[in-house]
Amino acid sequence: MSQTKGIITADIVHYYLYCNQTLSNPFQQPLTIFQRSLTTMQIQIQGLLQFAVPLFPTAERDLLGIQHLLNSSEASLHQLTALLDCRGLNKVCSPQPNWNHSITK
Asked: Which residues form the signal peptide (predicted)?
């Protein structure tokens, strides 16, 4: 932890070093805000597609493009959320058991 002082906050270092159920992900709040914002924007675009396109048919292409971008952003958010979870990182960093020693003939 002393090597990261002044570079990464202590709560982030602690989260990734000790990774247990009692520690909350320090990135959870901004990830949740981003998810809620995406959902709100998706609802707004859906409403525009339903009610504005009949009045402004040329807007449909742009609205569908925005909808696609929001869907892609949501998929990226899910990937980012998984990558930031300490359990995934600790699984990669943990030494794997050597099963060759337990095999008996």
From this structure: none
